Amino acid sequence: MRLTILGGGGFRVPLVYRALAGSEVDTLTLYDTDPLRAGVMRSVLDGLPRPADGGGLPRVAVAESLDEAVRGADFVFSAIRVGGTAGRVADEHIPLSEGLLGQETVGAGGVLYGLRTVPVALRIAERIAELAPGARVINFTNPAGTVTEAMASVLGSRVTGICDSPVGLVRRAARAAGADPDTVGYDYVGLNHLGWLRSLTTPDGRDLLPGLLADEAALGSFEEGRLFGATWLRALGALPNEYLHYYYFRRETLAAVRAAEQTRGAFLDGQQSAFFAEAQRQPERAFALWERTRLEREETYMAESRAASGGWERDTCDLDGGGYDQVALALMRALARDRPARLILNVRNGAGGPGAPLVLPALPADAVVETVCEVDGSGVRPVVSPVPLGPAELGLVLQLKAVERATIEAALFKDREAALRAVALHPLVDSVAAAERVLARAGA
Predict the structure, then answer these.
(1) How confident is the prediction for the chain on average, in pLDDT?
(2) Alpha carbon distance, N-terminus to C-terminus of the chain
(3) Residue 403: which residues within 8 A CB-CB, separation 6 or more?
(4) Looking at residue 54, what is its pLDDT?
């Protein structure tokens, strides 16, 4: 079986490659618009320690064009970053100049990133539809919900979006509640980077979440508990995705971002530039350099939100969240080998098929949502929760979905009015005038 990774010079590639040991994938094809990055990443893969159990790793090839990369692929992982880290720096700084949060997937910065990315994602989807008509596409590219929805307009149910934030939340919460993360059931629903964990059940059906919410010490033992605090979590009666910190604690997070020496994007831009330059000079050390850089990235993840919630370091439990690689491989194996799995994925609201209930009845059937899904060889089917979202959560979901769909409309039709709606209607943007200035400075 042949797997292609678009964005093959990206930092997640070695994680995916390592997880492929002993799998049915015999060829991994990398493609990146920057050949230098793809070459360095191949050096990293060459230096990656081989599995102790002797499980074979797939052959690695580097494609020279998008068409070469996708032609005949069985699975395509899309993990691109349009505009590179320099684009992310601009996405952060332009909103900050207006007193707005500028984050990669959240707020005005997320909209700018989506406007830049959607046209490229659509072109990729069209080439896959033409050259790999049987391929399944797993989208890593952020903003994942927006990009997956855009690609689904071409590929339909053949594209599924993934994110490691929800599975990380489930695993951390289960450990804090004294349960095995691999055996718990869960109810999670929302949009990408805007979802809530609403139950955590044992195999015999006992819900552990109420007890966890009542236990202040247990809440203080994992990342989301420390981010949001016991008082607010008990008021919500649920565990929010970590990205909701930007919404619930906007003032504090904005102050922390402004007080930081540099934005997250600027940090990553400098870090990645240094890594690729050094790894190109010393290809024999590429893996060791990547491993050092990766660990630093993980340790500094969401540093501003942690600073805004009192300042604390991530521990080993916070770092062990499940990972994009594990979610992607579990999804791929369920589809390819007909091995049933339950995963939190980004799928169409009506992916259950004609006559099946919508995951969120207030949204259109073709709107992409993030929810629990059952996956096997026949495809991906969302599990519809019998408990509806509360009005506060549903209000945020509806507003953010309007932003996502306006972003797609603006990118697809180069519609300036739709772009203005996308920025100005975002809950983290408090002024239409500021939204207009953000778009003008971004050249959108």
Answers:
(1) 93
(2) 41
(3) 111, 421, 422, 425, 426
(4) 56
